[in-house]
Amino acid sequence: MSDDYANPWSYRLMWAYLFGVVLILMTPTFYNYYISLNEYGFGAANYEFTTGWYAAVFSDSLLVNAFGWTLMLGLVNLVVTVPLGLLAAKQFKRRPSQAWLVALMLLPLFVPGDIFASALLVFFKTLNGGFQELAALTGLTFMKGWFKLGVTTAVIGLVVYTVPYIFIVILITLGRFHPEQTEAARACGAAAWRAFWDVEFPQVKAGVFASCAFVMILTFNEYTRTAILKGGFDTFTTVLVSQMLNTGMSEQSYAMGGIVSSIAIAVIGTVLVVTMLRAGQTERRRRGEEALALPA
Amino acid sequence: MDQMDFTRRFLLKSVGAAGLVGATSSLGLSRAFAADPLRIWTIGVAKVGAEPGTGGKDWGDMGAQAGIDIVYNAKSGSADQAIQKFVVGDGNDLYDAITDNGGGMEDALASQSAITALDTAQIPNFANIIDAYKDGGDAASTIRYDDTIYAIPYISNADSLAFDFEEVGEELTSWEACFAPEFKGRVALQNDFGPTFTNTAIYLKQSGQLDIADPSDMTADEVAGVAEFLITKKQEGQFRTFWDGFQNGVDLLSSGEVLLQSCWEPVQIVAAKKAGKDIRYGTMKEGHQTWNNIWMLTNGGDERGQAEAFYKLMNLYLDPWFGARIIATYGYQPQMTGVMDYIDSSPDFSEEMKAVIAERRERQQARYAVPGNSWQNVFPTEIRAYQDWWSKVQSA
């Protein structure tokens, strides 16, 4: 709720606008719901309401397996990419004159997906050959299949693709952070990790959490690179694209889309509502702090 | 059996090993063993269900009928991507058997030693294969490389024009309709230079508007002529859109957004069923692009001892059991003889279904009988000209 000093109408309008924007952005998902609740699926002349496809989702082992693999790729990618992006952003923040670092980090964004995937395919082929030679020479057979097409290669492709986005997102949140705060913490005797965790992280955590969401979204949306670099398993997008091109998407796919959309809407809605409820409290605290800071 | 199961335990194990991501390849994801099920990389229309007219919930019915276990992976890429995966990447380590994108992939893969020559003596039903694939047949080269058989066909067709009969008001028998002013803005063509250039070339050649020696393998000048014709028509607003993929094709036809669409027969079948409209698949007097899809045994699959399982599956693809169901479900031409006899003697097919199949067969044979037909060619000699001119058509 609003505080006593703000205009209640501007406050309400601001939140109505924000909810409106989110609703408009979410509109396409409602068409997906509409199809997923039709007994006859997409493009049908007849509409018969059913929730049966939602029950059938989990009997579609191809879709569920693909979803599981994609989730796993996303989680592994998240664990690898977010720390990488954070470290790169911190490095740039420390030495803002290093424009080359930004250019280097953003480079993968300028490479078309097909070319990117083909280049990595050739790279892994060569690398795998090298490791096989090495394994043969040293007898260390455990490294023989490291770079065969599989989870490793798919994850590396995803990491190279998603790091630039994560770097930028975290760099934006680092904009309001002053390195002197870390220096002050270190001067007070805090270890590097303690200084990071207690001083830096609270200020960049919004960016880190946003990055985590971003990594998952990018992983679930990515097709070209993953299709070329993955091993003998399917991802959510390869299954959906294959269906769309060859037989049409199954009704279970729409239901799966509905479930994923529902989770996204629930998460976004919760964040919005909690933020709205806490906004007044935050504003009052800010005013209080300003008042205390004034000279007596 | 489905592709490698993804279990909660596996998830935890994998995520727990995230710090050692390099080790994930050693979880056995990219290795197969002789006792393993046949790992296939193919498209959804390569399977049918035991119940006629259905695509099957999964590959269980196909596996049971062939007497093997199958692990399916969804194939979704272009011919180039598929070749890349097998020639450059280690697709051979991942899959035992794969299907093509139509028109010449077996030559590309065999020449690079990515697939292995087949021993047709191991496939009893090879004796049933239709004449087109026998020595000297129209489609003989599509399963051979250097006069050696490297592939087994599983579906084929002569692609034509689907149209909303009620709205159009007549049976369409010429590609002329696609370019006729009365259908301006209500026509869709396929967003693929192969079929769209080929069908347009067939029309322009047969109607005497352009000198084209071989619509399947045009010279750069011939491609330019076909493309310029399409660009002119496109700029006049003749085409509503260029459809991409099965889903998009069905949507356009069933919604009534377009009245005419050059497309695959399953698109017409599903659109008619979904919309409850009389959407028909015509026979074009100028000819059609004919094509087939084939199965190949990868070298990796052969090395892993999967040839026997592969031959069992191929035996099923040349069995009327499959042929009858593929025409009932998707309308594709069966690749073996004896299909109608099988249907007549099978209790699985209703009288209504038998009538539908007989009618589809009749129209199919009529399309195949047209002299102007041309085989699909994924790798024409002047492929760069095709690609360059197609991008001009797209951007016009």
Helix/strand layout:
The complex is a heterodimer of chains A (296) and B (396).
Chain A: H1 8-36, H2 52-56, H3 61-94, H4 99-106, H5 113-138, H6 151-174, H7 179-187, H8 192-221, H9 224-229, H10 236-246, H11 251-293
Helix pairs in contact in A: 1-11, 3-6, 3-8, 3-10, 6-8, 7-8
Chain B: H1 8-16, E1 38-42, H2 60-66, E2 70-74, H3 79-87, H4 91-94, E3 97-99, H5 105-111, E4 144-145, E5 148-149, E6 151-164, H6 165-168, E7 187-190, H7 193-206, H8 220-235, E8 239-243, H9 245-254, E9 260-263, H10 265-275, E10 279-281, E11 289-297, H11 299-303, H12 307-317, H13 320-329, H14 339-345, H15 351-368, E12 374-375, H16 383-395
Parallel strand pairs in B: 1-2, 1-3, 7-8, 7-9, 11-12
Antiparallel strand pairs in B: 3-11, 4-5, 6-9, 6-10, 6-11
Helix pairs in contact in B: 2-12, 7-8, 8-16, 9-10, 13-14
Nutshell version of this structure?
The complex is a heterodimer of chains A (296) and B (396). Chain A contains 11 helices and no strands.
Radius of gyration of chain A: 24 Å
Largest interface: A-B, 59 and 63 residues
How far apart the termini of chain A lie comes to 30 Å
Average predicted local confidence, pLDDT of chain A: 86
Q: Portion of residues in helices of chain A?
A: over 70%
Tally of contiguous helical segments of chain A: 11
N- to C-terminal distance of chain B: 47 Å
pLDDT < 50 stretches of chain A: none
Oligomer: heterodimer
What's the order of the H and E elements of chain B?
HEHEHHEHEEEHEHHEHEHEEHHHHHEH
What does this protein structure show overall?
The complex is a heterodimer of chains A (296) and B (396). By secondary structure, chain A is mainly α. In chain A, 76% of the residues lie in helices and 0% in strands. Chain A contains eleven helices and no strands. The longest helix of chain A is centred in the last third of the chain and has 43 residues, at 251-293. Chain A is flat, with a radius of gyration of 24 Å. Chain A starts with 7 loop residues before the first helix and ends with a helix. The mean pLDDT of chain A is 86. With 396 residues, chain B is of the alpha/beta class. Chain B has helices at 8-16, 60-66, 79-87, 91-94, 105-111, 165-168, 193-206, 220-235, 245-254, 265-275, 299-303, 307-317, 320-329, 339-345, 351-368, 383-395; strands at 38-42, 70-74, 97-99, 144-145, 148-149, 151-164, 187-190, 239-243, 260-263, 279-281, 289-297, 374-375. In chain B, the strands form two sheets. In chain B, strands 1, 2, 3, 6, 7, 8, 9, 10, 11 and 12 form a ten-stranded mixed beta sheet that branches. In chain B, strands 4-5 form a two-stranded antiparallel sheet. Chain B is globular. Chains A and B meet through helix 3, helix 5, helix 6 and helix 10 of A and helix 1, strand 2, helix 3, helix 4 and helix 9 of B.
